[in-house]
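Subject: sequence -> structure tokens, single chain

Hey, anyone have a minute? Need the predicted structure for the following. Not urgent.
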Amino acid sequence: MSTTHQIEVFFHNLWGSDIYDVKVEFSTSKAHVGSHSYSTECVTAGGKWGPLVRHYETGPHAAEFDYWYVEFSTSKDPS
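Reply:
Had a minute. Here:
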């Protein structure tokens, strides 16, 4: 039996300028465990975003892999 845990993830912008349309997604290799997505319009240069809550499992029958995806833009869309 696997054990479920929870962590709080903080996203720190060390890019050197504001970043936009930030999306963080947590996924797993386990078929019945859903992904968790978080998004925000902007994280300012040197800024922090969070906490983003992530649930995960350890032990027998836990997912083999956890995947963390991060997407963002470095400029604001003028439209």
